[in-house]
């Protein structure tokens, strides 16, 4: 028994020894091998954002971190962070950063961001060429693709010529050889002879640029014989187009939408539907839709509203107003549509209501201080301004301003001339009130209201008296479109006012004479594309 005991004790000792040696082996005593990775180009701040993203599935992108965060997302192949950075950059596109964003998008092959940056540069080419320092870093192929693109938005072709000349002169020794290839993409035939003769040729003769002088003289020769020798390149496409709609043409209610291309200086009908809009209705544009508000069918005043979708080119019903209104005044502001005043059964209204497209509903707002129908109205700095109008047949001179934040109307100084059926439009913190109808005749007066000074001044009169026309602001110039004269004849004339030079000029006539018309300016892409330009 004693022997067995000792054998058992020996066995246990041996077992304990084995266990002790096992637990003291490398498996338990030595630390596992650790691989350390260094990312010297990733800051601790950005790495912190990445780590936080894995916990929260969201990332905060700022102007100071977007580029390094994008580079880190590419390094670690985190597509969702890269997409967040691209979305941020699209929203922040500006004159100063568009070329750096284009370069970044090209480097990492972000097709959508690259297209957005390219389109931004095409639309703002003159400002980019004038004010973006990185313009001079554009590679030759990229600059060439821009200047040959039909989407390049410039009012005059000499802007393209001067930009190319500055780009070459930035590094003349390296870039002089590129001159002929780049200038072949400039539409020199669109540049005035006088500019070529008096500016281009003398400038380059001084520089002894024989290649360019030869190109200019050849171009001038082509200009003299172009109609028989070869077709001239067409004008470039504008970034925005002017649309005219609503009202009536000749003796029929209007069922057409007309479009004006400022580059070709011509109008054409782009939408001709069987539907006719109600008489004495008012049209207003916002966010891809034209809203036709109220009006009269037969002897019945309407509270109904129909809207035209640019995407589908279909008219459909929208939410009806609470009040029936003929000849209301309408404006759009911050995505809302406002209907002001109007008349019903011989009674002029001062009520007002606002439409919210997202809910398809109208809500009353505070009534105006004065009753008025067929008044002029516009928006400026987040407020609605309304001028004149009629109480029955009597023109009014009163004016007032609505603040959506306080839901209050405030009277402002009266106009010097009582009128209704006029045009009103804001430009550079001032409001231009033009033409209209008063005491049995059309007017040509133009008055300008300055809200900061709460004062009126006069401006150059329109070239002809008219009322019930459309007004629009396109490329920093004011347009007066169609309307009626004192004999109630539909007009096709279109006038353009240059505010800086205080001059009126006639532009291309409407395709169809049009009275009681509404106008809006829309981006040619995407909205103009709906009309198959």
TrEMBL record:
BACK domain segment(s): 98-201
Pfam family, one: BACK
Annotated ranges, domain BTB: 14-93
Entry keyword set: Kelch repeat, Repeat
Keyword Repeat attached: yes
InterPro entries reported for this sequence: BACK, BTB-kelch_protein, BTB/POZ_dom, Kelch-typ_b-propeller, Kelch_1, SKP1/BTB/POZ_sf
SMART domains: BACK, BTB, Kelch
Protein name: Kelch like family member 10
């Amino acid at each position: 028994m004693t022997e067995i005991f000792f054998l058992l004790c020996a066995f246990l000792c041996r077992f304990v020894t084995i266990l002790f040696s096992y637990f003291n082996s490398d498996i338990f005593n030595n630390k596992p091998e650790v691989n350390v990775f260094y990312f010297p180009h990733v800051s601790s701040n950005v790495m912190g954002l990445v780590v936080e993203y894995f916990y929260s599935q969201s990332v905060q992108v700022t102007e100071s971190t977007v580029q390094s965060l994008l580079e880190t997302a590419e390094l670690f192949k985190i597509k969702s962070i890269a997409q967040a950075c691209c979305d941020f950059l699209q929203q922040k596109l500006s004159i100063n950063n568009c070329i750096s964003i284009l370069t970044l998008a090209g480097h990492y092959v972000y097709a959508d961001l690259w297209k957005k940056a390219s389109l931004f540069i095409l639309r703002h080419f003159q400002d980019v060429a004038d004010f973006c320092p990185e313009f001079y870093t554009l590679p030759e192929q990229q600059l060439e693709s821009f200047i040959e693109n039909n989407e390049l938005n410039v009012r005059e072709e000499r802007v393209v010529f001067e930009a190319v000349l500055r780009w070459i002169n930035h590094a003349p020794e390296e870039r002089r050889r590129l001159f002929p290839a780049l200038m072949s993409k400039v539409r020199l035939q669109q540049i005035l002879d006088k500019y070529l003769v008096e500016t281009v040729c003398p400038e380059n003769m001084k520089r002894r640029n024989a290649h360019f002088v030869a190109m200019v003289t050849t171009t001038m020769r082509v200009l003299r014989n172009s109609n028989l020798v070869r077709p001239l390149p067409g004008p470039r496409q504008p970034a925005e187009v002017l649309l005219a709609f609503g009202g009536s043409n000749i003796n029929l209610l209007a069922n057409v939408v007309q479009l004006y291309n400022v580059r070709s200086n011509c109008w054409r009908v782009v939408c001709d539907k069987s539907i006719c809009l109600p008489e004495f209705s008012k049209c207003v544009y916002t966010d891809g839709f034209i809203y036709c508000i109220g009006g009269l069918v037969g002897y019945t005043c309407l509270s109904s509203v129909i809207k035209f979708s640019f995407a589908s080119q279909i008219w459909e019903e929208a939410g009806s107003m609470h009040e029936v209104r003929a000849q209301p005044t309408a404006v759009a502001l911050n995505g809302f549509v406002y209907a002001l005043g109007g008349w019903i059964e011989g009674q002029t209204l001062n009520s007002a209501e606002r439409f919210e497209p997202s809910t398809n509903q109208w809500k009353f707002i505070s009534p105006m201080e004065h009753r008025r129908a067929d008044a002029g109205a516009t928006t400026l700095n987040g407020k609605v301004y309304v001028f004149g109008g009629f109480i029955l047949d009597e023109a009014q001179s009163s004016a007032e301003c609505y603040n959506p934040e306080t839901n209050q109307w405030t009277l402002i100084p009266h106009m010097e001339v009582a009128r209704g059926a006029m045009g009103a439009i804001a430009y550079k913190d001032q409001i231009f009130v033009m033409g209209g109808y008063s005491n049995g005749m059309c007017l040509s007066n133009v008055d300008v209201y300055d809200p900061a000074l709460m004062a009126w001044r006069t401006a150059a009169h329109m070239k002809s008296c008219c009322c019930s026309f459309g007004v629009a602001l396109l490329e920093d110039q004011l347009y007066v479109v169609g309307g009626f004269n004192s004999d109630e004849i539909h007009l096709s004339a279109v006038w353009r006012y240059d505010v800086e030079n205080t001059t009126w000029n006639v532009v291309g006539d409407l395709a169809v004479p049009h009275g009681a018309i509404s106008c809006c300016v829309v981006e040619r892409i995407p909205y103009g594309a709906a009309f198959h330009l």
